Description:
The structure holds two protein chains of two kinds. By secondary structure, chain A is an all-alpha fold.
Amino acid sequence: MQKKGFRFYLRIYFKILAQDIKSKMSYRADFIISTIGMICTNIAGFISFWILFRNFPSVNGWGYYEMLFLYGFSLVSLTPVQCLFDNNWSLRMNVFSGDFIKYCFRPINIFFYYQSEVFDIKGLGQLAFGIGTLIYAWVKLGLVFTPLMLLKMIVFLITASLIMISLQNAAAATCFWIQNSFYILDLVCRFRDYAKYPITIFSPFFRFLFTFVMPIAFIAYYPSLVILRPDEVPVLSWISPVIGCIFFFASYKFWMHGATKYSGTGS
Amino acid sequence: MKLKKYLTLTRAGIIESLQYRLSTFVMVIGNLLYLIVVYFLWRAIYNSADSDVVNGMTFYDTLIYLVLATALYGFMEIYAVWEMGRAIQSGKIVLDLLKPMEYRSHLFWSYSGTFIVNFIATFLPTFLVVAIVTHGTIHFGLNLLFFVISVVFAVSINYSIDFLVGTICLYTESIWGINIMKQMVVLLLSGATIPLAFFPDTLRTVVSYLPFQSIYNAPLTLLLNGTPDPQEVLRTIGTQIIWCIVMMLLSKGFWKVSLRQITVNGG
């Protein structure tokens, strides 16, 4: 197969995207309700946060606004996985019913084609909410704003997103081997909620576990340290972009391995 | 025999859910991991507080409350809204309506087997681990009996709410958004995310007049109270019974009215 360039894929991506948005728009009520639902979810998360800090001024030396920063950071970094990789949730159904075979016959990368098919617009509400929270926390903490800070912020947000995407890819891909992989995906999804807490609250064993085995600490904690506590940044924070890329590549290979092994249901 | 036809559905449900042993396993693992995260998080929170008892709850109380709330959620959440929504969208609902049993009871009793299996396979192990970890904070006495009774009503109220929300799908044809909204409202206002004792006074008063607190807060408060006061127990369970009846009538009535609205595409 001839190698296709980046521009080729970009052009195809926008074509598929346009189709998806058109089809979504035909269910307008669903779109509006889903968006409201997404906003409600974020507000509920915020309320529980607020209630917690009304009772306790700080957690393990982390103040309200610092925790809020971590919270906003995790929300923003979860947006790409929500918007661009939402089709992973349907992978199980597609594999089970045999519909997945159609992706195997396209002359483009299966992973790319599969993921590009769905764009989840309601994730954008979360993005707005997250950015709002981040800016609010940023101002309240009195952090200086320089272009360098912004650059760091963007690089580390991308890193955090990559980690989350990899976790979800790997969890979704288990359905090529296991029948009911919904619970695994759901478990990973539940875990990303814990990403917003500083990893230092855990005992060394779990710190290790959440850093290297199930790397949720990279979703908000390690990257945020670079901005929040510039004096005590561990090496792990600096190398987290590399770790993010490695994880993403590994999960991609794992996903593709499952996809190429797929033999269909015979129908 | 009227009961026999229901129990047949229960039996079928038990057999069906025994097919998915892996999902049960993953659920228990998920509960235990949650226990670990909650343990460390609240340990850190209580360490930062000035006193051992905050809002009348010790660290172990909070731990038991939150972990068991999640375990209860795991076994009560049957995705009835999804099931109904999908049946409505696909038109399968027509077949269910033709059955010689009310749709509402048919759906409930087909899930009853799952309740039993999940209670034994996921709730009990989690309960035992929590009881061991908290070194006998859970008093083994009459409160266990009250807890079980209370859970039965909680299941019923939860199902009524699910059914009510599922009925809305007849009008909106949106599942995801409606479901996520329901989930957030129930989890936050029932005390499953943060114990109701931590809520600010006004909010707590409002919440106490809503049905949601009867789902998680009522059974868990009864469980944690080692020396139950008869009046208190009667009031809690009485409130639950009232909500149970009210929600049942509401969901039944709403369903009846909505059935006239139903439009099935193709069937």
